[in-house]
Design goal:
This protein is an alpha+beta fold. It has four helices and four strands; from the N terminus they run βαβαββαα.
Length: 159
C-alpha cells in the first residue's frame, strides 16, 4: 500500500457517475474518486501513478490531488475542485492509467530482452517476420487503401 498526502475526513455523499458527468466541480470542494482495477497494482506501478497522475490532473484541469492511497487493486484519490467538467476529467483519468500500464509493459519487455541472449532475440524477430510479415503487409495495404491490380488473362483457342 502506498499513501501520499493527508486524507480529508468528513461525511461523504455518493454521486452516481451518470449524474456526475453532467456537472462541474466546485472550487474548494473536495471530491473522492475510487478506482477499482482488474489487476494487482505493483509497488513500481504505484510509485509511477503517484508521480504522474497528480501532475497531469493539475496541468490539464487545475485539479489538486490532496490525498492518494494505492492498494492491491484499488486507488483512492481526493482532489480539490478547480472548477472542471467531470465529463472531460473521468475519461482522461482512465486514459492516463491505460498509458501508464502500457509503459510498464514496455519496460518489462525491455528488461526481458536485455537479459536474453541476442541470438534468442534474433530468432524471435525472424519467426515474427516469417510468420506475420504477409499479414502485416496486407493490413498496411488495407489501411492505406492500396488496391491490388488484377491481371486479366484471356484464353485464346488455336485451331
Amino acid at each position: 500500500m502506498l499513501e501520499v498526502g493527508r486524507e480529508v475526513i468528513g461525511n461523504k455523499v455518493l454521486i452516481p457517475r451518470s449524474k456526475l458527468e453532467n456537472w462541474e466541480s466546485i472550487k474548494g470542494q473536495i471530491y473522492e474518486i475510487q478506482i477499482k482495477t482488474e489487476n494487482r497494482i505493483s509497488d513500481d506501478v504505484a510509485s509511477k501513478i503517484v508521480g504522474i497522475v497528480p501532475k497531469k490532473l493539475y496541468e490539464k484541469f487545475g485539479a489538486k490531488v490532496k490525498y492518494m492511497r494505492i492498494m492491491d487493486n484499488y486507488i483512492i484519490m481526493q482532489i480539490e475542485g478547480s472548477p472542471f467538467s467531470w465529463s472531460s476529467l473521468l475519461p482522461y483519468l482512465s486514459s492516463i492509467l491505460t498509458w501508464l500500464g502500457l509503459i510498464v509493459i514496455a519496460i518489462a519487455v525491455l528488461l526481458i530482452i536485455q537479459k536474453a541472449p541476442w541470438e534468442v532475440f534474433l530468432l524471435l524477430i525472424g519467426l515474427i517476420l516469417a510468420l506475420g510479415a504477409p499479414d502485416i503487409a496486407e493490413a498496411i495495404k488495407k489501411h492505406l487503401g492500396v488496391k491490388e491490380e488484377k491481371k486479366i488473362v484471356r484464353k485464346i483457342e488455336v485451331e
